[in-house]
Amino acid sequence: MQLDDETAVRPAVTNVGVRPTLEVAGPLVVESHVLDFAGDVYGRPVRLFFFDRLRDERRFGSAGELATQIGPRRRCRAAVVRRRADGARRGGA
Fold first, then answer.
1. Is 82 helix (H, G, I), strand (E, B) or coil?
2. Is residue 93 pLDDT above 60, yes or no?
3. How far apart are CA 70 and CA 58, in angstroms?
4. Residues near 61 by Cβ (< 8 Å), separated by ≥ 6?
5. In angstroms, rounded to a whole number, what is the distance separating the alpha carbons of residues 1 and 60?
C-alpha cells in the first residue's frame, strides 16, 4: 500500500469482499490492514498493489470465530506480504 504523498510501499493485507460474517448481503468493500503502522489513513487516497490471493472469503459463525481463524495465520501472511513489498521497493514483483 502506498499513501498518496509517500514513495514508500508499505506491506498490507487487503480484503475485497462483502464481509459475510459481519453483514448480511452487505456492499462490496475494500479493507486493508497496514502492517507495522500506527498512523491514521482514513479519508486519504492510497494506492494498493495486489501480489497474491490468500484465500476465498467465507462466512464464520461469529466475529469471534473469524478472529480465531485470522489470528494464528497473521504472522505467516505478514512475512509473505513483507517479502513481496520488499521486492516491489527494489523494482521486482
1. helix
2. no
3. 12
4. 21
5. 27
And the C-alpha cell for 19? 464481509
Closest CA relative to residue 9, chosen from 43, 37, 29, 40: 37
Segment 63-77 shows an average pLDDT of 74
Average of per-residue pLDDT across 25-53: 85
Q: Predicted confidence band at 7 (pLDDT cuts at 50, 70, 90)?
A: confident
Integer angstrom CA distances of residue 78 from 20, 22, 50, 84, 87: 23, 23, 14, 10, 14
pLDDT at site 47: 93
- The three grid cell numbers given for residue 18, joined into one nine-digit string: 462483502
